[in-house]
Amino acid sequence: MVGEGILKGMAETARNFFGSFVSKDRLTTVQYPEEREPRIEAARDFPFLVYDGADWQQGMRCVACQICEKECPPKCIFIEKSKDKKPDANGKPQFYPAVFNIDISVCMSCQICVEVCPFDAIKMDVDYDLSTDDRFGGLLLNKQRLSKSNDYYRRIHPTEAAEVDARLAGERARQEAKAKAATEARLTATAVQPASGEPR
Amino acid sequence: MSTATLPTAHFDLEPMTGPSKEQLLELSMGPQHPSTHGVFRMKVVLDGERVVRLKPVFGYLHRNHEKIAESETYLGSMPYTDRLDYMCSITNNWAYALAVEKLAGIQVPERAEYLRVITGELTRLQNHACLIGFLMQDMGSSGTPLMYAFREREKILDLFEALTGARMMCNYMRFGGCRVDLPAGWLDQAKKVVADFPRFLDEYEQLLVSNEILMDRTQEVGVLSRELAVSAGISGPMARASGVDYDIRKVDRYSIYDRFTFRVPLGSHGDVYDRFMVRLLEMRESVGILLQAMRAVPAGPIVDPKMKIRGFRPRPGEAYGRIEAPKGELGFYLVSDGSPNPYRYRVRPPSLINLTVLEDLCVGRNVADIVAILGSIDIVLGEVDR
Amino acid sequence: MNLEAIKSEIEANVPGCRLELVANPSPSGQHSLRTGAEHAVAVAVYLRDAEDLRFDFCSNVTGIDWPSRELSEKVKVRKLVDGVEQEVEEVRKTTLAGSLEVVYHLFSVEKKHGPITLRMRTEDRDAGVHLPSLTPVWRSAELQEREVFDLFGVVFDGHPDLRRLLMWPAFTDHPMRRDYVDPDDYEYEPTAHDEVLRRAQQHRSETDGEHPGEAGER
């Protein structure tokens, strides 16, 4: 019969059309922006700087080592190292970034900065509603806009954040154990010292 | 400044119709055109509806990717390779990683090979689904088959987002393996998607394969002979539709493809219909490979433990590495001089080379056939112009 | 596939050709054959048609720019210094002439072997940039040789339609050469580094900070 192939195809279209009323599988439209699908956990959009605690300047993990700046393929990160040092989470004085800019109109979300950061200071955010009408500075995120807390990180990437927290806590515990062993060794040395230094 | 002298008769600044051929009409299809798969321009000379001459004009999406790679490190070029054939970012990454591994002699652990095959074949599935949808769309089906294809593609893109973090610009391969391991539950979700795929293929075949309009518009249109295909360097499904039995997965046996049984569909006519059917059949074969691979993923590291992310400096030398990308033979030619940046970085783009024969296929046909033929060649301008 | 054996076979069958085996130090083991320009087409035809070779698939055609290099080496010379003959160290500079190289990667669809890498060098990078086109042998070289002409400047004699591929027709200069300087169409870039930063500072000193938000300003 002429047109049989077309009729078979139309039967297929009808099956999809009527099926979309009964089966969720065939109804795939999401009425964005009123409805939004939940974000998949591993999604990445643009980087942000993680800080521990409540004060974003005090708790920032970044020590301005500038490795992410060097490895960034489109060179969208700009860092200026500070002249002074401030104590980090372990109490050790470290440099911090006086200026940390990311130009997100250039950033291609490749995540290489996250991969190479040795301090878990920069991670990927999931926020994409960043459009602006300011042509010259609107898409240049500075240190303050980039800093978000570790609690936020735990909310957007729970598995990753749990792993990072566990690793950092383990390192902190190792550092404390080493410091305790060092002080104990010093105390026992001073305790023994008077005995050997006694004048004969 | 160029001191080279050009031979005469080039077609860019002068119109293609001479003063004696007033009946001929010169038309510019593109660069803004809904069916040219990107910013692609064709200068077409028509005699009524019949095509007399056709000259493609390239370069509208030229982003000097090869020059940028000379100032980036080897790893820094990896996100740029995502953006070559932007529909299939994972296979682009794979070809580049393969070339660098050949250059530096890096071994890939087994689990990483399985992950590469799984993500690579998923990429092939979503690319062919896209192509068939777009081919239907270009021939005027107002979007319905396209949306059915995209519905399946969305499931695969969700898998990519759960694994790599991004739907299309995956940046997944590293030299010596993959960047990130499978999250919990990913393999089960992937098995479900792949198990549902043949049902979609059956529905699609019922919708299209014996459709009279499709058959009239695509059979005996744009016939590519076997000899011309080999001589013109055509590769991939376009060559196989013309009867060229050459699939790089079977010839080079790169990665672990020799462990899987799959067939290579061949066409006999070399027309648009054959290219379309070859891709449908290739999707079924890909589903077979995926089912075999997902059953047997071993445990182990996903990247060569000796490889560091920073400070990679291969020895001086060169290497050409190629894979069977969904569009054809995607190759990377790297020349290293011992520094962290490549000395010469070349992408062998299947889409550009498959376009060598566009004029031969279109001359003598109607204007409406140009769109069908161009759609069946499967080009992505990011790859053509780099 | 033994490249030495193939080289001898070609030299035996194509009279007068001069082939050179270029070793590839990387682990890939892909050594190449360098051919002179006069017999390149004959060598290519032999590679394509010989019964045991049948390299009918030219997969990749690309160019490489080797700019001229100056080598300086210290040599000991006997010279007259204050009337006494002594051995003195002198720095001798030699200039290696630059050239453009075209590389062809060949495979065989019939025999399923490959790759073979074929290379050709131009005489220099200015006027002597003519090389024979291998498009009459393999049609796939058509668009790729156009690209090498466009981006490197190698003129292929015998190409059916040699014009620019990726750049627009009125463009002069060849962008993929190592000494290419891109035009000074500097635009605002907030996170400038290295070369871009140098140009931005140069622009700022010339225009005296007319534009808002120049690179480096916080």
Q: Based on the structure given, which CATH architecture of one domain in chain A is correct?
A: 2-Layer Sandwich
Query: Any idea of the CATH topology of one domain in chain A?
Result: Alpha-Beta Plaits
What distance separates the N and C termini of chain C?
62 Å
**C-alpha termini separation of chain A:** 122 Å
Percent range for β-strand residues of chain A: 5-15%
The CATH class of one domain in chain A is identified as Alpha Beta
Task: Give the radius of gyration of chain C.
Answer: 24 Å
Helical content of chain A (DSSP H or I, runs of 4+):
40-55%
Number of discrete domains of chain C:
2
Order of strands in the sheet with the most strands of chain A?
6-1-8
Overall geometric form of chain C: flat
Average pLDDT reading of chain A: 87
The string of secondary-structure elements of chain C, in order, is HEEHEEEEEEHEH
CATH superfamily of the largest domain in chain C: NADH:ubiquinone oxidoreductase Nqo5 subunit
Quaternary state of this entry equals heterotrimer
Strand percentage of chain C: 25-35%
CATH topology of the largest domain in chain C: Beta Polymerase, domain 2
Main β-sheet, spatial strand arrangement of chain C: 1-2-7-6-3
> Class of the largest domain in chain C in CATH?
Alpha Beta
Keywords summarizing the entry:
heterotrimer, A: 200 residues, alpha+beta, three-stranded mixed beta sheet, three-stranded antiparallel beta sheet, 6 helices, B: 386 residues
Structure description:
The complex is a heterotrimer of chains A (200), B (386) and C (218). Chain A is built from six helices and eight strands, in the order H-E-H-E-E-E-E-H-E-E-H-E-H-H. In chain A, helix 5 crosses helix 6. In chain A, the strands form three sheets. In chain A, strands 6-1-8 form a three-stranded mixed β-sheet. In chain A, strands 2-5-7 form a three-stranded antiparallel β-sheet. Chain A has helices spanning 4-22, 67-71, 112-116, 143-146, 150-156, 158-197; strands at residues 47-51, 77-81, 86-87, 93-94, 97-103, 122-124, 140-141, 147-149. Helices cover 40% and strands 14% of the residues of chain A. Chain B is α+β, with helices and mostly antiparallel strands. Helix content of chain B is 45%, strand content 12%. Chain B contains 15 helices and eight strands. Chain B has helices at 65-71, 78-82, 89-104, 110-138, 144-164, 186-208, 212-218, 226-231, 237-241, 248-251, 272-295, 350-354, 358-362, 367-377, 381-385, and strands at 25-29, 41-47, 50-57, 173-174, 177-178, 317-325, 328-336, 344-348. In chain B, strands 1-2-3 form a three-stranded antiparallel β-sheet. Chain B has a three-stranded antiparallel β-sheet with strand order 6-7-8. In chain B, strands 4-5 form a two-stranded antiparallel sheet. In chain B, helix 5 runs antiparallel to helix 6. Mean pLDDT of chain B is 89; it is low at 1-13. Chain C folds into two domains: 3-67 and 100-168, 2-Layer Sandwich (Beta Polymerase, domain 2); 182-218, no CATH class. Chain C contains four helices and nine strands. Chain C is flat and about 65 Å long. The interface between A and B is medium-sized, with 30 and 39 residues.
